[in-house]
Amino acid sequence: MGGPSETCFPIRSAPPLNPHSNIMCLCLIPEHFLHVKLKENCPLPPPSKEWMTHKIGVAEQGLFQFLTRFELREMIFYFIIILPLILSALAVVWFTALKDLFVALS
Hints:
Largest sheet: 2 strands, antiparallel
Oligomer: single chain
Strand order of the largest sheet: 1-2
Radius of gyration: 21 Å
Strand content: 5-15%
Structural class: mainly alpha
Shape: elongated
Number of domains: 1
Mean pLDDT: 76
Protein name: Transmembrane protein, putative
Number of strands: 2
Helix content: 40-55%
Keywords: Membrane, Transmembrane, Transmembrane helix
Distance between the termini: 59 Å
Number of helices: 3
Low-confidence stretches: none
Order of helices and strands: EEHHH
Organism: Medicago truncatula (Barrel medic)
């Protein structure tokens, strides 16, 4: 498998027209699989690399109905993980510049 979290689709056919009807989440915990019921329109991880490599024809067409859900997950990841890291780095730079300014003015 590609990453810690990924979405798998049928390789030779499009996902169902009603994407809420058959979506399931399987969580792998050592020696256990859990079936988790997902909320409607919840964010989804990106498609698996295997699917992206081996999909054919009509299977790819179904991907478009999930694009906003992939993007929502990326936005959440950005705002929860990446943005705080950027802001904390900027804060360090800003406080260092202020400290240097006060030292220079003293």
